[in-house]
Each structure stands twice: as structure tokens, then as C-alpha cells.
Amino acid sequence: MIPVAHVIDQDVLIRAASEADLAALGELDAEVFGELAYPPFVLRQWFDLYQGWWLVAQHADGLRGYSLGVPLFDRSLGWLLGLGVRQEFWRRGYGRSLTVNSMRLLEGVGVREVRLTVEPGNRAAITLYRELGFVVDRMVKDYLGPGHDRLLMIAALR
Predict the structure, then answer these.
(1) Which letter does DSSP use for residue 144 in this model?
(2) Rounded CA gap, 84 and 34, in Å?
């Protein structure tokens, strides 16, 4: 069972991303992930492929975070391909709410297992994922290229 999301700021809406969000998504992704940010053409193509799966935390002042959780075509499992929250909004529940909502979308189409990768030194993200039911499966050396190792984490749904 997916944990209940914590309440976040009343003036923030978790919603599906729209085409009008693409520039802001690119800026947010670059701010959060630096050299490992998705290039604009990847963001565009993923938006076209996964409309409805890309969630944003919207505030009147702009996007505060996003998540992208997608099912495989056969819906045997899903992947949380991205979760990013602007640093000034860390520890306010945005990452948790976005992740929980992505997991609920996946569960809603029959996905029974979700996978993700996370930088091994990102203690805050690893803690969040563990609280949401993810367990470490293994370390994958050079997952995102030389020197970019990742932990593979898995959570069962249902």
C-alpha cells in the first residue's frame, strides 16, 4: 500500500505538466541536477511520450518541483525517472507528495513494482524513498557514465 502524502503548502497544486511548463521544467532540472540535467530535446520528447505521467508542484511564483514516473509498455513495472525539488523548498513535503502521486498513477494502471536510481550520497532522497517502501537492490557502477554510480531501489505496489 502506498503511504498517504503529507500535506504541503496550501497554495501549491500537484498536477500533470503541460506543454507551457517545458521551459520551466528545463530550468528546474538544470538547477537541481547540473551537468546531469536532461537536455531540452529529451525533456521535449519525454513530454510528448509521457503526457499525463509528468507531475509538477505548481505555485503562483513558479514550479517548485517535478516527478516523472512511467510504466513499461506491458505495465509489468514502472520507473521513477526523475524527481527534482528546488533546494529552497526541500523538507517541505514536495518530494514526498510528488513521489506518492507518481506511485499512485502507476498503481492505478496495474504496475506492481517501481524502480528508481539515486546518487549513493544523497541521504535525504534515500531516506525519503525508504520511508515510501523502497529498498536498495544493488549499487550500479557508472550507471550514468564514468564516476556516476547509482543505487537501484525497488518498491512493491499492492
Answers:
(1) T
(2) 11
Three cell numbers written together for 20: 507551457
Cα–chain center distance at 76: 19
Write out the CATH class of domain 13-156. alpha beta
Q: Any idea where the domains of the chain sit in the sequence? A: 13-156
The set of residues, in sequence order, having a beta carbon less than 8 Å from that of 119 and lying 6+ positions away, is: 125, 148, 149, 150, 151
pTM: 0.89
Q: Smallest Cα–Cα separation from 18: which of 61, 81, 63, 84?
A: 63
In the chain, what percentage of residues exceed pLDDT 70? 94
Asked if 14 and 56 touch (Cβ cutoff 8 Å), the reply is yes
Report yes or no: 46 and 38 within 8 Å, Cβ to Cβ.
yes
How is residue 80 annotated by DSSP? E
User: pLDDT (tens digit, 9 = 90+) per residue, 137-154?
Assistant: 999 999 999 999 999 999
Residue pair 88/97 in contact (Cβ under 8 Å)? The answer is no
**Distance (Å) of CA 96 to CA 28, 40, 42:** 17, 25, 25
